[in-house]
Specification:
- The complex is a heterodimer.
- Chain A is α+β, with helices and mostly antiparallel strands.
- In chain A, the strands form five sheets. In chain A, strands 11, 12, 13, 14, 15, 16, 19, 20, 21, 22 and 23 form an eleven-stranded mixed sheet that branches. In chain A, strands 1, 2, 3, 4, 5, 6 and 7 form a seven-stranded mixed sheet that branches.
- Chain A starts with a helix and ends in a 9-residue tail after the last helix.
- By secondary structure, chain B is of the alpha/beta class.
- In chain B, β9 and β10 form a beta hairpin.
- Chain B is globular and about 45 Å long.
- The chains are: A alpha+beta, B alpha/beta.
- At the A-B interface, α12 and α19 of A face α1, α2, β6 and α3 of B.
- Chain B: GO terms for molecular function: ATP binding.
- Chain B: InterPro entries: AAA+_ATPase, ABC_transporter-like_ATP-bd, ABC_transpr_LolD-like, MacB-like_ATP-bd, P-loop_NTPase.
- Chain B: This is ABC transporter ATP-binding protein.
- Chain B: Residues 8-228 form the ABC transporter domain.
Chain lengths: 776, 230
């Protein structure tokens, strides 16, 4: 009861303590509010991503039955996805087959032929001069906008265009796998369950991102601590005992944190309004997606004030508040190391039993993982004050700026440690995560095999194309500005004649230059045929003198007769070579002269295009040219790396979180530093009065930050590397340190501090004005 | 005393903070080795006068000549250099750097002028001896009494052998016994080095240590000695 009374009294002091009290409470509230806003955003993130997934599922048009007959409630839909300036553009051509055809989510009606409904972002892009090249590929008249329900996020580029020509393409001979007949938008096939290593990664990411926020909140409730201590001393003078003063202080922090909860909610709601404007790692969501889960929001609502009270009581345990002042101005007793070491040691103890689980069952006890990681990272915040104190005790010498900084750190290393704790924890966690990412990246990021040095784009031609038409289209591609060359390879299927043991044989058709893309040819002239050995497929029945049958070509909706073919006896055997797409085909390599007499066979042509290096828009011009010849073209740019979607999703989440945490910590640093400067306003003014140079004081501020930051980042690197090594052992991977990324993380941490120091210089100079000497 | 031969001479000083005038035509002069008390009630403008005379604040108008040089025509860096080398300061509170030891605090002005640390601290200790605080050398300001702290501040103001010491309510936070001791030590030490002392105070007891009194009221100054002689 007494404690409640003291807490209430403290809360009242916080709110009615005049301008001084209000300023302190407001600073605490702003600090806590920023942390709360980030916590709320984090709790809302899983919901936002699942809302996004739900919309993706609702508009899914993959997996519809191939044999659905045309009816009043069916629609033909063709996928015309493309890429513009590196951004994906989702495109669909739709043609209803009756008046009850399904309407995609986000649309009120299907667009008429020649018109389209577009996402707001695509509408803006197409209207802008920058979208001129894309307009050629998406020439339909805009008649409407896709609603939010039909989009993954507000920045998605998407359109639905009406068509009346899809039916003509929907024949068996057209081989148009991208045109489907649908009755409804089918559910997506359930994805594979997330694997244990990715689950571990997600857990670690949450710990690594949320822990600095917690550290930040703990620092925020101690804003203005020096002045508060003076107030508490005054309370001791009028009869409060030391226990009461601690609870009164806790009450002040409680009021600040409750106000912070309110402010945090306001910050979150404001930030939520603008979340649609932000795209991080190609991911953006609608404001309405960002809804924190009620249970987690309640947890934040309870945990933050409780933490504020706990942290204040803990922080005051070493402070003796006497009626005549606070006994902390003298040099404090040295910090003890043993219990600080205990935290990381226990953390390691929790994690070590899980070594190599990734190799065996893949099961990780999540509580143990969280506990171990938290203890290891909290160990940074426990060890850092000891480290700073131990090191700065031994520092001396140097100029006035250095001396002022070192003496300040010697007198109150705790404040410096608090300043750096958040960033140290964030950097330690980031280094560990980066190590884990690099260690398992090979499992999730694979080379696609595509060779972007040999070709930059691939343009598959539609089937049943005459040689003349193929050549015309290739000429069109060659004529595109920025194109430096084209290579076209034809592809014909054959098989062995025995129906009981039929073997598929692949034949590549092209001139000698084109065939060299798929085989190591010693010499070549038109009319030659080669047998490619060592291919991944299509080579089983290929041998000199072998009798084969060309696969039937389609004539309308029916297959034509099979044409016999005998591999020339003098065909030379050569080694197969991967084509620019990375496919190493076996079988036969034939020059045009060798197959000219076979006029009935169906050849599928693919043109590989090379463009001028550094020409940023050449790819889009090639895609436009391909589109002009075939609106359903699947032309695309080559990409030599393929990243597993889930892995890239996790990495994306990490980037978003890390950016938010760094911003938060930077803000925290700035607020703490400004607060320290404000507390020293009079001193700074008097120092300037007797002629201290501004640069001297600026250097002092810089050293005052740089020394603890250097120590903090060194400790963070050590703990981060240690945690990273432990995590790698847990997933059964060899320990490997990616030094450039460690340096990168440390560099980012250091840069945040430098930026904050730079931002605090103008207020510092302002505080050095003589106004600080005025007392009236 | 007439302004002739003044070390520091101010004429028709005007200074306002927003719409509030702090100085309204104030005059002031001081000679080497002289102690002049600037008196007046709270808010009368005496501290503003001291800040203007020391080049901390630039007046809106008027002239301040130090050793024949116009202060207002000097750049900020020049005025800072002047304060470092020729002026000394004692304030009522908040002046000692809490994280430095008393010796380091006293040595600070010398170090700012580029004197090496050991030499600066040796000179500082000799001044601390004169001010009777040599035994506080390794203590920090938070560990010494108010009177001791103020004597350390006086030692610091004199360590560069300034030509003018500006003291703004130097005993304002002290009891009468400590206050008188501080004033005694300050004026003795200043006179021994022929330094002029501009002493802002509202206490007659403190002003008694001066050679002359200037009263500031509503931003205007009156030299009491001139009036008496008239």
């Amino acid at each position: 009861m007494n404690r409640l009374r003291d807490l209430t009294l403290g809360a009242r002091f916080a709110l009615t303590g005049g301008r001084e009290g209000w300023t302190r409470t407001l600073m605490t509230a702003i600090g806590v509010g920023l942390g709360v806003a980030l916590l709320l955003a984090t709790t809302a993130l899983p919901g936002a991503l699942s809302a996004r997934d739900a919309r993706d599922n609702a508009r899914n048009d993959y997996g519809a039955g191939q044999e659905t007959p045309a009816a009043a409630d069916t629609m033909l839909i063709a996928r015309t996805d493309t890429v513009f300036g590196g951004d994906d553009v989702r495109g669909r051509l739709v043609q209803p087959e009756g008046d009850r055809a399904p309407v995609p989510p986000g649309l009120s009606a299907l667009p008429a032929p020649g018109t389209m409904v577009v996402s707001p972002e695509l509408r803006d892009l197409l209207k802008s001069p920058g979208g001129k090249l894309l307009r050629e590929r998406v020439p339909y008249k805009i008649t409407g906008t896709i609603g939010d329900a039909g989009l993954l996020g507000p920045h998605e580029l998407a359109y639905y265009a009406g068509s009346d020509s899809l039916k003509g393409h929907k024949t068996l001979s057209s081989n148009r796998i991208d045109i489907e007949r649908i009755k409804t938008f089918p559910d997506k096939k359930p994805g594979e369950p997330i694997d244990p290593i990715l689950a571990l990664l997600i857990v670690i990411i949450f710990v690594v991102l949320l822990l600095p926020v917690a550290v930040f909140i703990a620092a925020a409730v101690r804003f203005g601590g020096d002045r508060r201590d003076k107030r508490l001393a005054a309370l001791r003078l009028v009869g409060a005992d030391s226990r009461m003063t601690r609870w009164i202080a806790a009450g002040e922090a409680l009021a600040g944190s409750l106000l912070g909860l309110g402010l945090g909610t306001v910050f979150f709601l404001i930030a939520r309004q603008y979340v649609g404007e932000v795209t991080i790692a190609r991911l953006n969501v609608f404001p309405s997606d960002l809804n924190p889960s009620v249970a987690l929001a309640l947890l934040v609502g309870v945990a933050v004030p409780a933490a504020a009270v706990g942290v204040t009581l803990f922080a005051l345990r070493g402070v003796v508040i006497e009626p005549l002042g606070v006994v902390r101005t003298s040099v404090p007793r040295p910090r003890r190391l043993w219990w600080r070491l205990l935290l990381p040691v226990v953390g390691l103890g929790l994690l070590i039993p899980m070594f190599d689980k990734g190799r065996d069952t893949g099961f990780y006890n999540q509580t143990q993982v969280i506990g171990g990681t938290v203890l290891l990272l909290i160990g940074v915040t426990a060890l850092l004050p000891w480290l700073i104190e131990t090191v700065v005790r031994r520092l001396g010498g140097g100029g006035v700026g250095w001396q002022l900084a070192v003496r300040r750190l010697q007198l109150n290393s705790g404040a410096a440690a608090r300043l750096v704790n958040g960033i140290a924890v964030a950097v330690a966690g980031a280094i560990a995560l980066q190590m884990l990412f690099s260690g398992i990246e090979g499992d999730y990021v694979k080379s696609s095999g595509e060779d972007t040095a040999r070709a930059q784009l691939v343009v598959p031609m539609s089937s049943n194309l005459s040689k003349a038409e193929q050549e015309r289209r290739e000429e069109n591609l060659k004529a595109v500005p920025g194109v430096t060359g084209t290579t076209t390879l034809g592809n014909v299927g054959l098989h062995t004649p025995n129906p009981d043991d039929q073997k598929y044989v692949e034949m590549a058709v092209g001139d000698c230059r084109a065939l060299r893309e798929v085989g190591e040819l010693p010499s070549c002239k038109d009319g030659d045929v080669f047998v490619a050995a060592g291919g991944e497929f299509g080579g089983d029945g290929a041998a000199p003198g072998a009798k084969l049958l060309f696969e039937s070509a389609w004539v309308g909706d029916r297959k034509g007769p099979e044409t016999p073919y005998t591999v020339p006896r003098d065909a030379r055997t050569v080694q197969a070579r991967p084509d620019p797409l990375g496919t190493k085909r076996g079988g036969l390599l034939a020059t045009p002269g060798a197959v000219r007499k076979f006029t009935k066979i169906s050849v599928y042509y693919t043109t590989y295009v090379t463009t001028r290096p550094g020409d940023g828009t050449a790819a889009d011009r090639v895609l436009n040219a391909a589109w002009r010849d075939d609106p359903f073209t699947r032309a695309r740019a080559l990409n030599d790396v393929k990243t597993a979607t889930k892995f890239s999703g996790v990495r994306r989440g990490l980037y978003i979180g890390a950016a938010a945490v760094l911003m938060l910590i930077g803000t925290s640093l700035l607020v703490s530093m400004l607060e320290q400067l404000r507390e020293r306003k009079r001193l700074l003014s008097s120092l300037v009065a007797f002629g201290t140079r501004r640069t001297t004081l600026s250097w002092s501020v810089l050293w005052q930050t740089a020394v603890p930051v250097t120590l903090g980042l060194t400790l963070a690197s050590g703990v981060g590397l240690g945690l990273g090594a432990v995590l790698l052992r847990m997933v059964g991977r060899p320990i490997h340190i990616d030094w450039p990324s460690v340096a990168g993380m440390v560099g980012i941490g250091g840069a945040v501090v430098l930026l904050v120091t730079a931002l605090s210089l103008p207020p510092l100079w302002r505080l050095m004005r003589p106004d600080g000497l005025r007392t009236e | 005393m007439t302004p002739a031969g003044s070390l520091l001479l101010a004429k028709d000083l005007r200074k306002s903070y927003g719409s509030t005038p702090a100085l309204d035509g104030a005059e002031f002069s001081i000679h080497p080795g002289e102690v002049v008390a600037v008196m007046g009630p709270s808010g009368s403008g005496k501290s503003t006068l001291l800040h203007c005379l020391a080049g901390i604040v630039t007046p809106d108008s008027g002239s301040i000549l130090y050793n024949g040089r116009e202060l207002s025509s000097m750049k900020d860096a020049e005025r800072s250099a002047l304060r470092r080398s020729e002026f000394g300061f004692v304030f009522q509170f908040g002046q000692l750097v809490p994280e430095l030891t008393c010796t380091e605090n006293v040595a600070l002005p010398l170090r700012l002028t580029g004197v090496r640390r050991k030499e600066a601290e040796r000179t500082a200790l000799s001044w601390m001896e004169r001010l009777e605080v040599e035994d506080l050398g390794n203590k920090r300001p938070g560990e010494v009494s108010g009177g001791q702290g103020q004597r350390v501040a006086v030692a610091r103001s004199l360590v560069t052998s300034p030509r003018v010491v500006f003291a703004d309510e130097p005993t304002g936070a002290l009891d009468s016994l400590n206050g008188e001791r501080v004033m005694q030590l300050l004026t003795e030490a200043a006179r021994s080095t022929n330094a002029a002392v501009v002493l802002v105070t509202h206490e007659a007891r403190v002003a008694a240590y001066s050679d002359r009194e200037v009263v500031v009221r509503d931003g205007k100054s009156r030299d009491m000695m001139l009036e008496h002689s008239v």
